[in-house]
# Entry
Amino acid sequence: MITTRWIFLLFSTLLLSAEPLPEKTELTAEELHKKVTSLVPDLVDATIGIFMGGAGSGSGVIVSPDGLCISAAHVTSSPGNKVTVLLSDGRELEALTLGVDHGTDGSLLQITEGGPFPYRPYIREKNYQIGDWVIVTGHPGGPVVNRPPPVRLGQISAAGQESGFKDPIVTDAIVISGDSGGPLFNLKGEVIGINSNIGMPWRANQHVPLPSIVAKWDDLLASKNFGTEDNALQTAHLYDDPYRQLRETFLQHLAERPEHPLARRPRLLSPHEMQAYLDDWKVDPGKKQRPYLGIRLSLMNREIALISEVAQNSPAAKAGLKPGHIITALNETPISSTQSFALAFSNHPKEDSLTLKINGTQTFKIEPTSIPRRQLFPMPMAGLINMRINDSATGQTPDSVNISRKTLIETGPKLNESWVTIYRGEELIIHGTAVANNEILTKLSELGDLSDLSSLSVKSGEKESSLSLLAKDHEYDLALLKVSDIELTPVSFRLREPRVGTLVFTPTSGTPVLGCMTQPFRESPKSGYEHAQTPESTTGWLGISFSPSDTDLIIAAVEIGSPADRAGFLEGDHIIQFAGHEIETRDDFAKKITPRAPGEKITLLVQRNTEEIKLSPILEQRPPALQGVYLQQSAMTDKALSSLSQKGGPLSKRRLGFPFAFYHDQIITPQQAGSPLFDLKGRCIGINIARSYRHRSLAIPAKAIDQLLWKLQN
Amino acid sequence: MILLSSFKKLAFFTFLTVSAIGTPLEQHTITLTKQLQDQILMVGRLGLTQILPAVSLGSEGHILSPKIESIDGSDTPYLLYRRNGSREILETIKDLEKRSSVLLKLPEGVEVTRSTIAPAPKSNTWFYLPVVAPSPTIGEKVSIVLSRSHPLSSSPENLFAVKQGLLPVGTPIFNLEGALTGVSMKLRKKDGGQSIRALDISRLLEDFPELEGVTISDKKIPKFGELPKGKQHPATGLIINEGRPLTNSIVGTIIRSDGLILTKASDLGPDFLFRFQGQDFPAALLATDQETDLALIAISAQNLPTVSWSDPETLKAGSFLYHHTLLGDASAENSEAALDVTSTFSHQLPAHPVSQHDSSQTTSLGLIPEQLESDFVIAAIRPDSPATESDLKAGDRLKKIDNQTIRSRYELTLLLTQKEVGDVVELSIQRGEEHLTRKLTLSPPPLLPKTTGLHFQHPQLIMPSVYRGPFPETLAHSLPLSAWDCGSPLLDPEGHVYGINIAAITPTRALALPPSVIKAAVTRMMTSLSF
# Structure
């Protein structure tokens, strides 16, 4: 049965050639929810974390019961490395890396002890297309204590088939450093891709298509190494490729014109010049076109759009326009300057005729022709190191992706009277959730000065009201406010913890769509992450070192930016007391500091010259020595992850450190905190509290809200 | 302060003269940069384009250089690159197998400042790192990058962590007084990055006893206070290439208060918007300029802050520069200072720099010639050229072309420039004792811009720009920019603007266009808007 269906799918994709979205039945939200929540436990079980010795960590997926796993080439680096894998039940086992293919970014590894293992099937041929729903797992930020790999939901926006770099599968299932090598699943639970790299926008997530790994399967099993370990050399040519391709194309066409001066006496041409020649020779007429009028405008005068030249035989000339004419309107839009003309013109639909009003009185109708849109290289290439953004795999627009999601959202219930927006003047500050007819909960830290709430107003639909503070809680960062002039419909809470994978949505306007619950409820640590490391690094980091050639307690070095640096320790300080106790040996010191965790404050007494000084540093998580941006870098700190995340969009200011949190992957803006989070049945399962990272938003679970409300209202 | 220009039209191009106050560390860096640029030698190897920094030590005229792998494992000699473009063969004195440095002999008659050596301090310290440009031009000096480093306490070997990373292995490292104090190591993922090994003087003398008389400096390293933090320039915003989920953002610099913005043309998506102080503005492309890769875009706005240009002539090699990466909503709170480094200005590059390895611009023999003394030796045959079909070999000496004796690379270039692709030339070759003649057809030269073919030795910490040249006059500096930072103003920590960043090349090199070039480009663009 299944085989028949699989063949059918294959057959149908062959028929459809290059068309993007063929006929397919839309999933309803409920069907999607059922599929995702039932698949999640098995997907999580087959996901592994990979520790590459000191060189970072990544993720992988088990694809056979005897422990054969797929991961990314830039995680496992080279064949024959002994590594440790972390299973989602907490077991740490030995594994051996097999073949790597740096060209596509795929690799294999074999777990060498234990078994049989939970595993997932993987596809052999491309059976996915744009718009397909996908689920991704992995270990973002590095493996974390007591956290199974979070799941995230997305859709395919480019259905590549060859490599993680040149022709990847692109989805909006959001991944971040640490997810590299982890699996991308379709709704059948088959592995269709391996997480490879990301671009800055949160929707730019790239995965190695499985078929490209399958194509080299036997060689990878035989531990072949495709490409050098130093895969930066692999990517170096990626930066030169656009030049080479452009130049090759140019030379090809130049070769057809042997009498051209450049053929006999070549010189170094800039990419712009080469492109200009190619445009003149009308190469690639299928390229995107833009409308052409044939007028030249001047920027010298700020207040008018003055035509300084009209090209001969151009559409503008044919329409009767002349130099000296001042454009005062384009179709219905009034024009006050060259800039406003440029803006209005860029919005004009490409093929339509347009009307220009000149000098306020005369009207001219113009039929634009089209000329190639000059685009220097096929795509801009910025991204992160070893991570490349490439949409030449498809010329498709993402509209087809958004349509499916919009449909799903419209079938959701309308709950607009249970949430509000809070403004300061014209500026939207934050959202709020109605918990009683005239009470709302909102994010405390965004309200600003609590003694000046009169500057804020609450809006619900057309109605507006002032607000006053009833109670607050700093741990959860929530404030209970009274709303006097609007009658609200309180949300109905669902107190039971939902299953991982549950679809969620936030019913505020402008929100991009659905998300899902990524992992079970747990605390959100203040530091952002608690990493699964060997015991020695659960010790807080102080940042001092002693001389290796001695046994004294004299500080030989203080690391820059460390807690010790900030607390005022100096080289040469002699440590004499720890928390009031005398210490004599380095052993004593080690014994006393090892049990202290990150976040704890310790007090040391040091002797500096003749003085005794008391210093109280607050220990931190040991940061990685190099702030790399590889997806496989382990133990990423909040600073590194948040900085990476911010390149794609804003994060909330207070976004960590909640006693109990609901983790989900729906993208919300910092202003959308305070809004309710609903499941598909319209029950409130939490109140959004923060956008934490690229791949994570936090809400306070209904369970915790319920208990908190009892406290606040009494 | 220069009075506002009387040309109202171009009123946004006023210069502010800057008095070079700077911090003490900056003053010190400027002085040391000059000193180090004289001390540091540029060394390469026959047949390779790579050029690395080296130092001369001791009174006997020895050069301590990073080891360069030869092109085919053979014993080809090291070369000393001179400022005038000539090269001299260096005699190798010692090449130990497990070491990353080699000892070479300074040729007779070459006068060069000797370096002193010093042990590295045990705690956090500053280092000066010499960096040679990817494709250095004739006469271009080494750039000096200032790096703050801390000891890797977990390691017993007296290693320091350096964040710029990516120095070729064996690069000599200097302390704040300009003494040789360390050497760069291979990238060890264990340490999380690249490390510098503090110089072990006794081990150096053990390996190279020839350096016995070298001066060991005991100068006390001066201490410097905290450096001022710069700020994001108010006249900047993010350009978001929209409509495509996969594209990047770049930076736009506002040059006119009613919404004229400059940015890098080749990284501009067909549809884009301008994000300024948290607000999004629809934007339209007005014009692009081919020569400079600048684009002029427009938004509808009033009273925007604009940049005032400072004269880059006031910058000295070693002057401190600053950069802020714009993030998210482009607000001041949401921007991120560049890595924990102090970046410096390096030098101005002319419009058509002639690189050390320039060959003919119009036609090519398909060979890589090396000029030694007065001879040309064929170092390699270009694999994609017609020369591969001849029986010419590496090692053949090229004596004449079409019966003309060629004495220098300039003469060679001149001759080849006068020919055309497809012409046949006759080469007179000497192979050992034999004299041969061969005919070769001239082919088009490779003609990729100078900064392609970057030698990435290690994973990069930045994303280079796709379009990295050619440009007219530019300012080279060591800010670790990435492609998405281009279009931003070139700033010093006090907020003066010296140009617009136009290309990110390596983590220790980026290019900016000076105001004079920008001004000319803007004039061209403002008068050529066509629709």
